[in-house]
């Protein structure tokens, strides 16, 4: 058993991350939170949107990279841009909608107008700027952006490694996750946003925590039929958690649902027989019906992408740090673009059942997150344990550290990346 470490001997936030624990101050220290915005969110790839959220020229979505408000927009040539949401004149935001469609962005303060590509197109009384302003130099500031499988990421750091290199071992799992369109392209179908009074890292931990499921989600399990309840009884199963590098991890809860294009000849679960009949009556072939039915409930794993998004079984979960003790969560429902209406409707109903504001899952999670934040304030010293499963680790087929499904392998992976970034010199 390790000797307790006195926090008074710790000089930085990075020192508060050990191999098997983190200090509770990481949840509540305002100075550490400000440092995180600089060293973590300003220095890595941050997920902002899925391309399907920008279906047409002029489609936009506003988002955050740490403390920086940004606009994600598709221009008339169908190219996607990420730009700081700040007028180059006096600094007002030029877009306030969460999502929408526009022909241009106009500052509400002095009327400077910008094209969908961010270029400065017009400004009132241009004669007053004669010979002192070159419009080509005063477009909205663009942020480096790259995409993988329709997932849009951006970074404020120009010399950061390419996105695909950063994703590394997670790419394999993203490829598997997008198969839940049921043979159709993946499509975002709206989101549910809420805030909880707790630190962002509490939610980051939760997505890779299977240990809490039978306790926190008793009400969800009790709402299921026997067949479905058996599916979610996975703590004693063959699932696992794998460290994918760079803070990413995957938690496989239902191994038989990892690849949704395999085992299509398996019997259709009883809870989906009505859907299968409806699809068949619409004229879909037996293979199409089986592909759609197998994909309707989502993948059997949670993929955590450091620092702010999870591909969580059947939806995207995006976290946005607001303050040291407040986090905004976006739950984005997904389906198939062009898929049968019955398929997408079923996915929405399943999403509402667990993730929705009146669902059986997320409200219980939110209560647990709030209690962790409250409890972290107790006492003057204290550590949060992350050591579950450390004595029973193995190596995955891909050469990664692997633990049982109820291990804290994914949390340790995220915190080691956090420690790496927080060890960087502070900005001058």
Quick summary:
This protein has 428 residues and is of the alpha+beta class. It has helices spanning 30-41, 163-167, 171-177, 200-206, 213-216, 218-222, 226-231, 273-281, 286-296, 341-354, 362-375, 409-422; strands spanning 21-23, 46-50, 59-65, 68-74, 80-84, 99-101, 105-106, 113-114, 120-122, 142-148, 151-155, 186-196, 240-245, 248-252, 301-305, 309-312, 315-323, 326-336, 383-385, 394-395, 401-404. Helix 8 (273-281) runs antiparallel to helix 9.
Description:
Pfam families: Rieske, Ring_hydroxyl_A. This protein is α+β, with helices and mostly antiparallel strands and 428 residues long. The protein is 25% helix and 25% strand. The protein has 12 helices and 21 strands. It has helices spanning 30-41, 163-167, 171-177, 200-206, 213-216, 218-222, 226-231, 273-281, 286-296, 341-354, 362-375, 409-422; strands spanning 21-23, 46-50, 59-65, 68-74, 80-84, 99-101, 105-106, 113-114, 120-122, 142-148, 151-155, 186-196, 240-245, 248-252, 301-305, 309-312, 315-323, 326-336, 383-385, 394-395, 401-404. Strand 4 (68-74) and strand 5 (80-84) form a beta hairpin. Helix 8 (273-281) packs antiparallel against helix 9. The mean pLDDT is 92.
